[in-house]
Amino acid sequence: MTHRSRKTRLWQVVVPLALIWGLLVVSLAWTESGYPDSPIRSVGDAAWYSLVTLTTVGYGDKYPVSVAGKTIGALFLLGSLGVLGVLIYKVSEHITDLRERRRMGYNGTSFKRHVLIVGWDDFARSVAHQLLNADLRIAIVTDTKDDVDLIYEQFPKDSVYVLFADLKDPLVLEKAGIREAGMVFPNLRNDTDKLVAVLNIKRAFPDTRFVVALDNEDLQDTFHTAGVTFVLSRGEIAAKMVASYIFEPDVAEYETDLLASAKESDEYDIQQFLVTPGNPYHGRAYGDAFAELKQTHNAVLIGIAKESDGARRLIKLPSDDVRIDTGDYLLMIVNGVTERAVSRLFGTAEGVL
């Protein structure tokens, strides 16, 4: 039942009860007014008596003396049980409804610069684990109600928000903070559904940035044309890793380690850090930054990403004379300890969000 239908049903109960109560109050006042020894002399007295009776307070200052008045009073006494029961039930129902709306995500989220995952399965769960390891917040939209409790059991509520909604309706993503999201990951059942979702979301929210994992690598150009920022093929990545493990297993193990987030001193990761105007390497040569980062923090600089006219260009192992400018991203291999030191040095956290 929707929130609006509950309100309609509530009014359908309240209005008739109010009319009956008003009729009984008027009847009591009219009946008792004919008895000089009755303390109920007006509609106000009758209304006060009914309220005291219905709330079970029972001051005893107003009471009926006639047979008809006592009959009406008995109705108030019996009615008090029903009214209190209805009030308690309605309050409990309202509290339950509020809790359910919050649990289903209908109140929305205040997350900013988070990752929005549309569609939930085992693959999305693995992605979420990696994102949380990188200290990112995640909003998850699922069309399976049972997923909600399962997700909250696995992930901390202060870092994860879940919305139970129709995945085909892009407007529900407003509640998941899509306008404030740093990246959207459509994780639907097949590539066709992912493409339709991207087009619909782009139509409603033109500035959205996407990363899509495809089952069919032949569709990469199609998704790029549709406006997807980053497109990758799950099959292609898996094939490369399997081949690497076959003929260069040590390299493959290193690569796997580098793809995960580094938290401890014996864990390694490739991370990228934004160069801001206050960055100590702003305006300096890449070679100088390489030597200083390696010597001072044991971080190995391996590349630089530059943006120009909305296009992104990744330079792998650039020459020493490449200039580091504001807005560039420096890519480096770090461990958990090094990552924290570089974050303090650069005044920014890893990543592009």
Features of this protein?
Rossmann fold; 4-stranded antiparallel sheet; 10 strands; 3 domains; Helix Hairpins; Alpha-Beta Plaits; alpha/beta; about 350 residues; about 15% strand
Describe the structure.
The chain has 353 residues and is an alpha/beta fold. It folds into 3 domains: 3-103, Helix Hairpins (Orthogonal Bundle); 115-237, 3-Layer(aba) Sandwich (Rossmann fold); 264-346, Alpha-Beta Plaits, CATH 3.30.70. The chain contains 11 helices and 10 strands. A 4-stranded parallel β-sheet has the order 3-2-1-4. Strands 7-10-8-9 form a 4-stranded antiparallel β-sheet. Helix 8 (234-247) crosses helix 9 (249-259). It is elongated, with a radius of gyration of 33 Å. 24% of the residues are buried. The mean pLDDT is 87.
Question: What is the CATH C level class of the largest domain, in words?
Answer: Alpha Beta
The computed structural class is alpha/beta
> Please, what is the average pLDDT?
87
Strand coverage percent: 15-25%
Poorly predicted runs of 5 or more residues? none
Largest sheet: 4 strands, parallel
User: Number of domains in the coordinates?
Assistant: 3
Radius of gyration based on Cα positions: 33 Å
Oligomeric form: single chain
How is the largest sheet built, in terms of strand order?
A: 3-2-1-4
Tally the helices: 11
Q: How far is it from the N-terminal to the C-terminal residue, by CA? A: 39 Å
Overall number of strands: 10
Helix-strand string: HHHEHEHEEHEHEHHEHEEEH
Principal-axis shape equals elongated
Indicate the percent of residues in helices. Answer: 40-55%
The second-level CATH architecture of the largest domain is 3-Layer(aba) Sandwich
CATH homologous superfamily assignment of the largest domain: NAD(P)-binding Rossmann-like Domain
CATH-derived topology of the largest domain: Rossmann fold
